[in-house]
Amino acid sequence: MFALLIIKMISTKAEMFWQQLLPGIQVCRVSRQSVHKLASLQKATLLPQKKLQHLLYPFSQLEPYLDRSVDRMQFQLFHPSLDNMVKAEKLFYTSPSHNIDYYVSAERMDHIPALKQPEVCFIGRSNVGKSSLIKALFSLTPDVEVRVSKTPGHTKKMNFFRVGKAFTIVDMPGYGHRAPTDFVDMVEPYLFSRKNLVRTFLLVDGSVGLQKADLVALEICEETKRPYVMVVTKIDKSRHGSLLVNLLNLQDVVKTQTTSCFPQPFLVSSLQFLGIYLLRCFIAHVTGTIQISDTAQS
Predict the structure, then answer these.
(1) Is the CB of residue 175 less than 8 Å from the CB of residue 126?
(2) What percent of the chain has pLDDT over 90?
(3) How far, in Å, CA of 37 to CA of 17, rounded?
(4) Which residues contact 7 (CB under 8 A, 6 or more apart)?
(5) Which residues have a Cβ under 8 Å from the Cβ of 173 and sit 6 or more positions away?
(6) Which pairs count as long-range contacts for 208-216, CB under 8 Å and 24+ apart, including other chains?
(7) Could you tell me how far CA 232 lies from the centroid of its own chain?
(8) Around Cβ 278, how many Cβ atoms within 10 Å?
(9) Beta bridge mates, 159
(10) Tell me: the pLDDT tens digits for 88-147?
(11) Cα 292 → chain centroid
(12) Is residue 67 classed as helix, strand or coil in its secondary structure?
């Protein structure tokens, strides 16, 4: 048997001090970073049923406002169970055998390391909330360094985050306002030629809807002929009516102008944690890390 000491200090000197003072003791380092109160499903399941339903499946909040003529299935094609979300969540916990960390940043394809595991990338307009969303996905491992800024265009490079040996998440530079001058030269070669890229997540600000720059990005995704999916961010920033208008307009574009886009948009709020569990599960599913039998259309 051994003693367990939990310390809030994370320096190596502090650990060595306690180990010399009390030989044989096991030191457990506690991060100074705080964990979001809803980061874990275990905490979320303590909420009232209706609030939990909205957290897991944000579309359920909007459904009552939809006209009866609107097909609801297009918003619920990927509808995993709570058990499947729990399985996916386990991938976002770091451990000695499953390390989650920031790996590298790159400006060119020849700077990107060759990685075998599947990759997913996040791309969107500057200030759409890419880095905030990735930070929310990694909220169970708050020591992962995801830089978030209120200044649009903060991300200037392709930032790679390894989730153990399971998959890699890539935070791409934003397009539009204050985008890197070489944005196209940096991003297009990656989208077209990265062999282990299994899904691109194209983010759209739900409070303002599709913009011209988003339509250009959508065209690029179509030209790659690779599967991608739309993610509607900041759904907490607008009223249900305006959000629905923007969402239905986006759905019309997906239905009439795309062939490679997954029909279901994913609704998220990084601030209120809406849709984060569902998105984690979808990432785990498309990277082949977990298998969900009833979501063949994804």
Answers:
(1) yes
(2) 66
(3) 32
(4) 14, 15, 18, 27, 28, 29, 30
(5) 153, 155, 156, 157, 158, 179, 180, 183, 186, 187
(6) 208/246, 209/245, 209/246, 209/249, 209/250, 210/246, 210/249, 210/250, 210/253, 211/125, 211/176, 213/125, 213/175, 213/176, 214/124, 214/125, 215/253, 216/175
(7) 11
(8) 23
(9) 105, 171
(10) 999 999 999 999 999 999 888 888 888 999 999 999 998 899 989 999 999 999 888 786
(11) 19
(12) coil
The per-residue pLDDT for range 165-181, each reduced to its tens digit, is 999 999 998 887 666 66
| Amino acid in position 85 | M
pLDDT in tens, 46-86: 999 999 999 999 999 999 988 888 888 999 999 999 999 99
Hey, how many other C-beta atoms are within 10 angstroms of the C-beta on 92? 24
Mean pLDDT for the chain?
A: 85
d(Cα 228, Cα 249) in Å, to the nearest integer?
A: 18
Token pair for 150:
């209120």
Q: Enumerate residues 6+ apart whose C-beta is below 8 A from 11.
A: none
Residue given tokens 């569990």 in the structure block? 277
